[in-house]
Amino acid sequence: MPISSGSGFYISNDGYVITNYHVVEGCDLNFINFQGKNYETNIIGQDQINDLALLKANINPRDFYAIENKDASLLDDIIIAGYPLGKNVSSSIKTSKGSITSIFGYGDNSSNFQTDAALNQGNSGGPIINKKGNIIGVAVATFAKDEGVESFNFGIKSSVLKTFINTFDIKTKE
């Protein structure tokens, strides 16, 4: 049975969580850790092409993110949050700052953007946040780190995320 870990974030106070498809791909059981406790989740929807997954847990978080209506622009400042390397480093959330360095992803993928903010194993599925504190993207991939290439990281655009969420008729914060 495959085991993986990644990051995710709440999009409503009804317990809906966004992460990447590749984080939950092939897993029969999925759990999230919330306030030090593990909760089993159900996969509500998956989008393999755009690498998104929607999970649902029986949790009612007080706080959750609003999703930006406008996609990121070139040179916008951003923050990536998540749990790179899991608890091997620490159990607290980690952040990195950067900017949007291209409005297209790898191979001119128009559903992604490129950022120079640090992404590491375990950041997958985490929020990419703009100055207003809104979700501007979902952390998805790095490129060629094993070959020594740095700051070549990608996020899924907020418009793609909104289209995916709207498929399930979930009310999110505007």
Helix share of residues?
under 10%
Overall SS class: mainly beta
- Major β-sheet profile: 6 strands, antiparallel, barrel
The counted number of beta strands is: 11
What kind of oligomer do you see?
single chain
| Uncertain residue ranges | none
Instruction: Output the strand order for the largest sheet.
Output: 6-7-8-11-10-9
Range of strand content: 35-45%
Distance between the termini: 38 Å
Gyration radius, to the nearest Å?
15 Å
Task: Let me know the average pLDDT.
Answer: 90
Can you write the helix and strand succession as a string?
A: EEHEEEEEEEEEH
Helix segment tally: 2
**Which of globular, elongated, flat, extended, rod-shaped describes the shape?**
globular
Structure, described:
The chain is mainly beta and 174 residues long. It is built from two helices and eleven strands. It has helices at residues 21-24, 158-166, and strands at residues 9-10, 16-19, 30-34, 37-47, 52-57, 77-82, 94-102, 112-115, 127-129, 135-142, 153-157. The strands form two sheets. Strands 6-7-8-11-10-9 form a six-stranded antiparallel barrel. Strands 1-2-5-4-3 form a five-stranded antiparallel β-sheet. It is globular and about 40 Å long. The chain starts with 8 loop residues before the first strand and ends in an 8-residue tail after the last helix.
Using brief descriptors, characterize the structure shown.
2 helices, 174 residues, mainly beta, single chain, 11 strands, globular
